[in-house]
């Protein structure tokens, strides 16, 4: 297996020397499965309005995005599929140039659910395969507890304690062998959970998608993934400023990363926006970002991060703002008693009171 450290080195070199990319020319990370993942993708979490999503996708594809991130529980795969079908049928883009990610939902954390849920996703997306299929959460909840499609509404006895990662992973591997998923990965898993899969499967995870932003930089986890040939994708790169409901789950106020003095000073120095600095700080380390926006101008802005370089002083300043576990927002302790699930991933938080 090719060393991700070497791949990341090549990627960072490409990032440093790349101008504003033309369509399909965003720098890419080489996955251990052999595929190429664009360093910038469009996040679609919480976007279910058809007009807004279509507008955002059109703007993204026109700006050069080829990486689209979705999930079963985002309830927008069908809308995304309609737009992709239009672009493909009109010859504006080729399927092999796209990188589409979706995820096994938290209410389907059983091996028998994998083929059915992936087939449902493929049908909605109007695709024969996805480029990356992720296990969305390490813990599972009962299907009947997931009423109304809201993780916040899951009751205290809603967790499914029978979650078996290795059985689920074997079912995922079968889908890869069948060609319905080109690469496999996990989301929100910790080192121990990832290592268990690595030790028990011939197919290691190709990607880990986790919360990663200025206040929660996940340095030990990123280093672990680099050593094990696993690419990292950052979600909530801006600290999820539009997700006010997160306060209910974490008990924390959402950070305003755009207005931090150091970020604004670096942005002014490079004649860039704070958002572009936050994204550049991540991708310059070879980590993929999937910022979400339904504003076409911001969608375009978020990919225009390859024509400037953060110098060593900039990087050191931004690195120093990491708050470690204290900066984490997606704690998920209030999801159906998940904190007591044997696969609750953030063990350091288990003994802290639930907000």
Automatic annotation (TrEMBL):
Substrate binds at residue 136. Gene3D superfamilies: NADP-dependent oxidoreductase domain. This is Aldo-keto reductase family 1 member C4. The record marks 103 as: Lowers pKa of active site Tyr. The keyword NAD does not apply. The active site is at 74 (proton donor). Keywords: NADP, Oxidoreductase, Signal. Pfam families: Aldo_ket_red. It comes from the Eukaryota. Belongs to the aldo/keto reductase family. Residues 40-322 form the NADP-dependent oxidoreductase domain. Residues 1-18 form the signal peptide. GO terms for molecular function: oxidoreductase activity.
């Amino acid at each position: 297996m090719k060393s991700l450290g070497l791949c990341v080195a090549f990627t960072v070199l490409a990032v440093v020397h790349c101008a504003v990319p033309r369509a399909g020319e965003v720098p890419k990370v080489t996955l251990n499965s052999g595929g190429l993942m664009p360093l910038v993708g469009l996040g679609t979490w919480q976007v279910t309005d058809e007009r807004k999503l279509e507008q955002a996708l059109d703007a993204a594809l026109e700006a050069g995005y080829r990486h689209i991130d979705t999930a079963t529980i985002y309830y927008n795969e069908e809308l995304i599929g309609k737009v992709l079908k239009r672009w493909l049928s009109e010859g504006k883009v080729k399927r092999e140039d796209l990188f589409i990610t979706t995820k096994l939902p938290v209410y389907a954390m059983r091996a028998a659910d994998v083929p059915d849920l992936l087939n449902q996703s493929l049908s909605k997306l109007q695709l024969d395969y996805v480029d990356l299929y992720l296990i969305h959460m390490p813990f599972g909840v009962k299907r009947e507890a997931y009423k109304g499609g809201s993780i916040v509404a899951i009751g205290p006895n809603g967790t499914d304690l029978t979650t078996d990662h290795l059985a689920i992973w074997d079912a995922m591997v079968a889908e890869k062998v069948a060609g319905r998923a080109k690469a496999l990965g996990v989301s929100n898993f910790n080192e121990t959970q990832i290592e268990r899969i690595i030790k028990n499967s011939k197919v290691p995870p190709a990607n880990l998608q986790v919360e990663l932003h200025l206040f929660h930089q996940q340095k030990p986890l990123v280093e672990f993934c680099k050593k094990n040939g696993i690419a990292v994708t950052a979600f909530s790169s801006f600290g999820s400023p539009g997700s006010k409901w997160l306060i209910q789950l974490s008990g924390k106020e959402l950070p305003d990363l755009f207005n931090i003095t150091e970020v604004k000073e670096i942005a002014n120095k490079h004649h860039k926006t704070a958002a572009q600095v936050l994204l550049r700080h991540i991708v310059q380390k070879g980590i993929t970002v999937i910022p979400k926006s339904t504003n076409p101008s911001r969608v375009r802005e978020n990919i225009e991060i390859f024509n400037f370089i953060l110098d060593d002083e900039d990087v050191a300043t931004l690195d120093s703002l990491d708050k470690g576990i204290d900066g984490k927002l997606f704690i998920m302790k209030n999801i159906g008693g998940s904190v007591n699930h044997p696969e609750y991933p953030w063990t350091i938080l288990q003994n802290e009171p639930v907000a």
